[in-house]
Sequence to fold (150 residues):
Amino acid sequence: MSRAPILAAGGIVLRGSARPRIAVVQRRKDNGWVLPKGKLKSKESAISAARREASEETGHDVDVREFLGVIYYFASGRPKLVHFWRMQAARTAERTLTRDIKALEWLPLASAIERLSRPHEQAFLRYVGHRAIKLTEPESRRARTARGAT
Fold:
């Protein structure tokens, strides 16, 4: 008999636009560095959980933008399904980090990938990170890049 997956959601949370940085958080329970995410509460939608978790774990209000994908892995012997969105963090932190989080770092993409403790999160960020950053660029700059102008 298969067990129902644990449902979770989170974000590739970016700060800044000219040289965006990605949030990675250090969990207190195991010192592991992960992307901001967490389990859905009863009757909570994935997008609402993603916004709540990203805000709690980074201390910043976040605007949820494009859906980036899903990762699926096993946690404590159970399947876990995590939906991710691109998010833009407010300039300043509005609250303290949730007690589950020991530290927060804002890193360039390559450093964020390297800092993550879990290979499946590294692979996911490697796959979606450039797209997330590209979508953060101001609209006028994206249009020039698409036309081949510099």
Observations:
- Strands lie at 6-15, 21-27, 33-34, 37-39, 62-75, 78-89, 101-107.
- The longest strand covers residues 62-75.
